[in-house]
Every structure is written in structure tokens, then in C-alpha cells.
Amino acid sequence: MTADGFRPVTETRQATPAAALALRSLCVHRGGTPVLRDITLDIPAGAITALVGRSGVGKTTLVATLNGLIKPESGSVTVAGCGDLSDPHALRDHRRRSATIFQDHALIDRLSAIDNVLLGLADQRHPLSPLPWPELLRRRAAEALDEVGLLHRATARTATLSGGERQRVGVARALVRQPSLLLGDEPFASVDPALVRQMSADFRTLAQRRGLTVVLVLHQLETARLLADRIVGLADGRIAFDGPASTFDSEAEARIFPLSPTTKD
Length: 265
Description:
By secondary structure, this protein is of the alpha/beta class. The protein has a domain at 17-108 and 180-256: P-loop containing nucleotide triphosphate hydrolases (Rossmann fold, 3-Layer(aba) Sandwich). It is built from eight helices and ten strands. Strands 6-7-8-3-9-10 form a six-stranded mixed β-sheet, with helices on both faces. Strand 9 and strand 10 form a beta hairpin. Helix 4 (135-147) packs across helix 5.
């Protein structure tokens, strides 16, 4: 366990894990404008997939589609063990089995770290309940904080935590749901760059220990190469690269990051 971290699998095309999510001819519009165009992609189970590309190519939109927040214009998203997300029952099951880490971590500063983690279980009790959290759920929240090396700060107000500590509270809040799929939108964006390498390595260890399927939007290519088993690069709303992180070379980078300017997501 490191002071600033949580308590490598090499993928090849010859030994691709079973797909946790299958996207077929996926098209997504926002405000009537096409953002994702004809995306066909398999997300391998038990691996970390990084989504990279310029601002505006649809990375955040793709994650929002994967967690069911955005309905595609056409095409399908099928989740292993749940089914096609166009089916409300499949979508409900999928949301129970998945969790998302947000860029700003969406924490409530006046609450303690452990109370923020417990919010990851808010769908498991009545929102107007005046009763304290059950002991079993508080124990799960404490275990999640322990897993990211932050149990000693469980009762600290989140407003007093550093950027790295806040990031780990956000991860613990996702882990407390005991998900099989973990999604993240720039989860290291607000972390001191000096800590990102260590925290990325610790996050990878944690994901492997839990056997999680992980899909992350990542801004820094160095972080993507360090953390991910696989990189999916988007350009103009389409897949421009899909392969092991070790094969994401300068030619692939040039395809994903052309010199022409783009707009933001």
C-alpha cells in the first residue's frame, strides 16, 4: 500500500477475453447532431479499456450510452448477463451491476468520506428514510475505503481532503456497489500530475484483484498506455483505432489527434 494510492495483464487479439459489452452499428445524436457514427465494438470482460481522442469526438457520450443515460438513435448495446439495453429490465439489471466514477467525483463536501461512499448505495434504501444507515452497509462502505487506502480518513469531511483523497473516495463509492462493470469519465483529471502514475498503477491492481471490466475516458495518452490493456481511439465520432495499448504507436496517435481544431463535447 502506498501513501497516495490504493491498497499487467497483456491482451492480444489471439487471446481476446469474452465480451462484457457488445456495441453494434451504434449511432448517437445529441441535440439533433450526430456524435457517434456506426460504432461496432466489443468491450472485453476483465480488462481495462481506455477511450481516447480529441474533445468533441464523443468519448463522454459513449460512456453515457454505456451506462444507459443516453439512448442511441440506432444500433444496440448488449451487456453480457443482462441483454440489450433497449429492454427496460436489462437496463435495470445493468445499472445494478455497474458503477461510474465522475470527473469531479460528485462528492458532497459537508459530508464525511464514509457518508459519501454510502451514497453509492442510495438505491438500496428509501430516499426519505430518517433511520441511520444499516450496520451491514456501513461495514461495506468502510471496507471500500480500506481497499483504496483511506479508512483512516473515513470520518473526515470531504471538503478537507486533498485532490488525490477525493479521487479515492469517488472510487470507493463506485466499489461499494460491488460492480462487475466500472465506467469512468476522466477520473484522474483533478489529481496532481505527480501522483497520477502511482495512482494509475494502484487502480490497475485494484481492478485486476476484483476482476472488473473497466472503461475509462482518459485525456493523457501516457496514462492510457500505463493503465489500459486496450485503447479505443475515436475520431469524427468513429473508431479510428482499436487494439492493445502496446500497439498504440505514433501513427495511431496521428490518426486520433489530427492537427485540425475541434469543438468540445
